[in-house]
Amino acid sequence: MVLGNRGRSVTTALFGPLARLLVRAGVSPNVVTVLGTVATSATALWLLPTGNLVVGVPVVVVLVFADSVDGLMARERGTESAFGAYLDSTMDRVSDAAIFTALGLYLLWQDEQQWQGIGFALGMACVFFGMLVSYARARAEGLGISAKAGIAERADRLIFAGVAALAVGLGAPAVVLVLALGLLVLANIITVIQRSLVVYRASAETEPE
Description:
By secondary structure, the protein is mostly helical. It has a single domain (about 5-205), classed as Up-down Bundle (Four Helix Bundle (Hemerythrin (Met), subunit A)). It has helices at about 5-25, 30-45, 55-65, 70-75, 80-110, 115-140, 155-170, 175-205. The chain is flat. It starts with a helix and ends with a helix.
């Protein structure tokens, strides 16, 4: 999937003017990072579990893409830092956990009994394996190895889940979201394996026989 790469170009075009405005106003990129995470997490946990998918999904998607504003601000100011990158990555994990927990809670609170337990479990599995995907990349980079490979980047996962949730909000059966979460769990596992293979091959090339 390549939505992540294309998404960065879209967000730069959409939110570049806002980033420049905030820079001129003297706002810190780190403040924007934290506030964006709070807004995304609170909106997801408020609207999605209560069934307001048609409103909640588009709002959450906009907030997720607006998350790029802090990075655009840092580049505009020429103040990109290790701490800023660390904070942004950490806050992304918080937002992701809130979104998939919210979707799991939505399924748990539905009347379709056969999907309640498995739907919530898959939502929590998306939280766990999504973090594992991010950890695999971070640990590889800590070893000096670039491990960006994989079929499920963050933007891919969020957009795929968002489309399924919106479809359910518009009248599709809840099983559509359950199946989407199941596919995301599988995609996350495959991505971890892909990144692990990248690290294995890279380490095999550098270690003496």
